[in-house]
């Protein structure tokens, strides 16, 4: 049985600060016995919301550390339960000793994310806000962190709540009409319902657009660099990363393994993958590298197909890869062709549209045209670094919003084609559920387990 979505009576304890050494380290307790355990270590009563300087001792009276004891009575605490913090010196051994003493006094070790989970179960946060805590901690760019803070403050949840409210109103209206069949016909015919469904669709698309941006900020763009040996793929990785991560040589087949580098472009996290040059090879190691290259391409947000633009058959070289790509990965993968070595070809840096393809002329060696590439990558993902009001979101949220949008569209069609009020009502109910799964009004133990178990311990 899952223990997740139920609050047990346990008092939990964990180190709340990052592992390793630091000036100060915090041990946090939550639950009904938190106060008693905290007071036993502090050796004196803890006044609510007061900072007490104390010596922390175990049950045998052994001095462990000295520090600040804090007591937040529930429900006005982070978890909504009684919370005690022991703020000691930030060394891993001493903090572990404090945790052990708390366990000896009746606490148990917290599971990953259990503090946040309790905050969620006690209605201190909704699910999207709890996820924003983890996203804030894991943010890799300033923009990502600030957008996570906005979600934690409820910016995303308010958008969802507003959508839920509109769907609820519409459901009440539609279901009332179904209950009075004589009036149902008029009600469906007068176009007001269709109008409201469409207004809701527009609103939902706006939230989806903002959430896409928010999820991009958190998860970033995956860029796979692929192409023939010696085209300059590794040089391009190094140019983007601004450091010599990859080995570059004039020998074909230099890169055999998959190389990864994480950077950002104006706040958009970019996960770059450099791959082995694509060619027929008898070398087992190289074959495996090439197999992995195709595998990485399959999950790319964008593939940079790098071609040596200075070779006379540059276009043929890139064209030759198309049938193979289509065969392996399908026709509509997002590919941008890079004509590298512009310094040799003499062609000026440029972004060229040609028969549905985008071609970028650049030189990984001199850096000419790299700014065009960066702009292009942002554009591909619809990333705008201007927005100071974005909020963070996750793939999970995008999927739920897309599901809600699909339900609305199905409902609109039912109404239009069949004038079917009952089918519309059912689609609205499913739309409502999808939206509810974002803030966790509707959630399963499985989903909660999946979300909170990916948090760090002590969060
Ligand atoms: N020392 C310490 N710093 C911390 C945390 C913590 O748990 N301990 N946090 C942990 O994540 C974050 C702050 N988050 C918190 C959120 C709510 C409450 C809280 O006590 N809320 C009560 C009272 C609010 C009030 O007084 O206005 C409540 O919501 O009822 C505390 C911390 C970051 N800094
Ligand atoms: N002139 C010039 N030479 C370049 C440029 N980019 C790469 N090269 C050279 O081309 C050769 C191959 O570069 P790499 O970056 O190793 O090529 P690669 O595509 O990673 O090759 P493999 O790993 O073997 O598949 C090296 O000698 C680079 O210095 C460029 O923009 N201009
Ligand atoms: Mg290489």
UniProtKB/TrEMBL annotation:
Instruction: Please indicate if the UniProt record lists Transmembrane as a keyword.
Output: no
Query: Which Gene Ontology CC terms are recorded?
Result: cytosol
Stated EC number for the protein is 3.6.-.-
This protein's major location comes to cytoplasm
Record CDD domains: trmE, TrmE_N
| Presence of keyword Hydrolase | yes
Query: Where, subcellularly, is it found?
Result: Cytoplasm
* GO BP field: tRNA methylation; tRNA wobble uridine modification
Record: residues binding (6S)-5-formyl-5,6,7,8-tetrahydrofolate: 28, 85, 124, 459
Q: Which cofactor does it need?
A: K(+)
**Molecular function GO labels:** GTP binding; GTPase activity; metal ion binding
In this chain the TrmE-type G domain maps to 220-382
* Keyword list, A-Z: Cytoplasm, GTP-binding, Hydrolase, Magnesium, Metal-binding, Nucleotide-binding, Potassium, tRNA processing
Task: Please list the residues that bind Mg(2+).
Answer: 234, 255
UniProt binding sites for K(+): 230, 249, 251, 254
Cofactor note, please?
Binds 1 potassium ion per subunit.
In which residues is GTP bound? 230-235, 249-255, 274-277, 340-343
HAMAP family tied to this protein: GTPase_MnmE
| Quaternary state and interactors | Homodimer. Heterotetramer of two MnmE and two MnmG subunits.
Protein family per UniProt: Belongs to the TRAFAC class TrmE-Era-EngA-EngB-Septin-like GTPase superfamily. TrmE GTPase family.
Name of the protein: tRNA modification GTPase MnmE
Source lineage: Bacteria, Pseudomonadati, Pseudomonadota, Gammaproteobacteria, Cellvibrionales
């Amino acid at each position: 049985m899952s223990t997740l979505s139920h609050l047990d009576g346990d008092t939990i304890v964990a180190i709340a600060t990052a592992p390793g050494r630091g000036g100060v380290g915090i041990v946090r307790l939550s639950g009904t016995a938190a106060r008693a355990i905290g007071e036993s270590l502090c050796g004196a009563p803890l006044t609510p919301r007061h900072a007490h300087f104390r010596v922390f001792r175990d049950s045998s009276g052994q001095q462990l550390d000295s520090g600040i004891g804090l007591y937040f009575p529930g429900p006005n605490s982070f978890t909504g339960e009684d919370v005690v913090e022991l703020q000691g010196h930030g060394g891993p051994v001493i903090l572990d000793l404090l945790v052990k003493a708390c366990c000896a006094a009746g606490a148990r070790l917290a599971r990953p994310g259990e503090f946040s989970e309790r905050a969620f179960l006690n209605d201190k946060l909704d699910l999207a806000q709890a996820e924003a805590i983890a996203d804030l901690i894991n943010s890799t760019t300033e923009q990502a962190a600030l957008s996570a803070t906005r979600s934690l403050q409820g910016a995303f949840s308010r958008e969802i709540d507003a959508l839920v409210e509109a769907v609820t109103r519409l459901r009440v209206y539609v279901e009332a009409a179904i209950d009075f069949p004589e009036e149902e016909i008029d009600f469906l015919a007068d176009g007001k319902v269709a109008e409201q469904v469409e207004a809701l669709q527009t609103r939902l698309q706006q939230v989806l657009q903002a959430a896409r941006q928010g999820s991009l900020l958190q998860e970033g763009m995956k860029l796979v660099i692929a192409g023939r040996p010696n085209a300059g793929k590794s040089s391009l990785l190094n140019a983007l990363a601004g450091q010599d991560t990859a080995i570059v040589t004039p020998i074909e087949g230099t890169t055999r393994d998959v190389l990864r580098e994480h950077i950002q472009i104006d706040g958009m996290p970019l996960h770059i993958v450099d791959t082995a040059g694509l060619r027929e090879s008898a070398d087992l190691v190289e074959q495996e590298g090439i197999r992995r290259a195709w595998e990485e391409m399959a999950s790319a947000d964008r593939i940079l197909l790098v071609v040596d633009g200075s070779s006379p058959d540059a276009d043929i070289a890139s064209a030759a890869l198309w049938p193979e790509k289509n065969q392996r990965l399908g026709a509509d993968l997002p590919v941008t062709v890079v004509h590298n070595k512009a310094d040799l070809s003499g062609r000026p840096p440029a972004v060229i549209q040609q028969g549905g393809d985008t071609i970028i002329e650049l030189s990984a060696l001199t850096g000419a045209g790299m700014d065009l590439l960066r702009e292009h990558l942002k554009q591909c993902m619809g990333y705008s670094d201007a927005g100071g009001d974005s909020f963070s979101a996750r793939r999970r949220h995008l999927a739920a919003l897309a599901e809600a949008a699909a339900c609305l569209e199905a409902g609109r069609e039912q109404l239009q084609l069949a004038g079917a009020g009952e089918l519309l009502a059912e689609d609205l109910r499913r739309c409502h559920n999808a939206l509810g799964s974002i803030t966790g009004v509707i959630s399963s133990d499985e989903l909660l387990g999946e979300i909170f178990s990916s948090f760090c311990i002590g969060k």
